[in-house]
Amino acid sequence: MAEAVMKTHDLDFCSRPSLCGARRLSYNASDLSFSPYSDYWREMRKLCVVHLFSRVQKYSPIQEDEVARLVQKICRLSIDSKPVNLSEAMMCLSSSIICRVDFGKRYDDEGAERSRFDGLLKESEAMLSCFSFSDYFPFMGWIDRFTGFFSRLEKTSKELDIFYQQLINEHLDPNRQKPEQEDILDVLLRIQKDRDFPFDLTIDHIKAILMDVFIAGTDTTAATVIWAMCFLMKNPKCLKKTQAEVRDLIGTKGFVNEEDIQGLTYLKAVIKETFRLQTTVPLLVPRETLRTCSVGGYQVPAKTLVYVNAWAIGRDPEAWENPEEFSPERFIGSSIDYKGLNFELIPFGAGRRVCPGMHMGVAAVELALANLLYKFDWEMSTGMNKKDIDFDVVPGLTTQKKMLLSLSLGRLMIKHCTVMVINLLLNLSSLYFLQFEPHSIIMLINTMHV
Ligand code: HEM
């Protein structure tokens, strides 16, 4: 297997432009379908890697702030003894991180702007993953017109265009308060203004990059945390071990910060094992052969659409011992990593198209998972058994869990939170002259270590 993958990797593959996000939800972008090995394409990729994703630490405060908000939200739910819809919470977390990194905005969890944003995200993902004749049988592309696919695509493209244009206008407004830290849109507009790019960087290019980041970074991060939680709930020994590691290291500090993560060897192994068994982008980005080549003894003609099955590679018995078993221990003391150099584990792809947001994505997953395990004891919701956790997915580019993952917090934890609320109320009631809302008390409790 590894040999076949190695050869696959050696091929001069490229992303197939007709399936590329920026192109499909296109900005009338004949020039966005740039040839994959053109200087233009190389420069565009360099721009993203060097200017946008190289300094992950720059985004750490945003990621930490959003994870802290997530913890507070879950604490609030725990006081109501409600099960926590982790799928929804994780989507909310990762889209909030991406919005702030991408264009410096934080949408209120329940507000109208948030629903507009979530609606756009869902519709864009649906458009990217649904089948269209034009992609696979170009001569039958006319069918897409009859099925309504084109008009839906056009409608979504227009809405996205309006959305991005509004953000660009806001960023270009001379009265806008200068942010402490540039977001990705600031960086792109600065590069455009300073002509710091060897080619003409148009507003359409900027919109396309924003969209790629927006779509590529949201689902993937959320899904990885959800799958990791599924595996841990199904394997209570691993759950305990990961939790013990985090709690031993962090003690009473109250929050796992980015710099603590280096000390969490087992948690990192859990994440690698999750990537291996439930790769979030199972078929990577589709490729097309540039010329005829041979893979594992098969002749592949030029211009063939090729999918690399990262999901199957992660479960290949020739590469992995007991491949179906969830065993993070296999990564302890192993040099195998997901960075694209070990072809038996390629959740972020490999080669020229390897995910440019890999470090940012992993940092968000590690931070979220570590804090979820540090702060809370998780249990199956009433009437559910660990056997009920399934790995069924919704069809699409990424593997999203079909049934939402809803979990309860341990009874001790709820008791602990409730006792704290009562104590706090008793203390505060003596200060009757203080005007406070119950909500603010809960917020106060949430900032304390539970
Ligand atoms: C755990 C989280 C993530 C996973 C598993 C993941 C996985 C992937 C994979 C498999 C690809 C295709 C690579 C290939 O075909 O060789 C990809 C592409 C991409 N990812 Fe990620 N990704 C994650 C997070 C992110 C984040 C946070 C961002 C941005 C902030 C991002 C931005 C991108 C972009 C822009 C591409 C397209 C690159 C290109 O077309 O050259 N990803 N990602």
TrEMBL record:
Membrane topology of this protein: Single-pass membrane protein
Q: Does the keyword Chloroplast apply?
A: no
What's in the GO CC field?
A: membrane
Q: Which GO terms describe its molecular function?
A: heme binding; iron ion binding; monooxygenase activity; oxidoreductase activity, acting on paired donors, with incorporation or reduction of molecular oxygen
Residues involved in heme binding: 355
Q: Which Pfam families match?
A: p450 (PF00067)
Q: Where in the cell? A: Membrane
Write out the entry's keywords from A to Z: Heme, Iron, Membrane, Metal-binding, Monooxygenase, Oxidoreductase, Transmembrane, Transmembrane helix
Cofactor(s) recorded in Swiss-Prot or TrEMBL: heme
Specify whether Transmembrane helix is a keyword of the entry. yes
Q: Which PANTHER family match?
A: CYTOCHROME P450 83B1-LIKE, CYTOCHROME P450 FAMILY 71 PROTEIN
Q: What family does the entry list?
A: Belongs to the cytochrome P450 family.
Name under which the protein is recorded:
Cytochrome P450
Q: Which organism is it from?
A: Gossypium tomentosum (Hawaiian cotton)
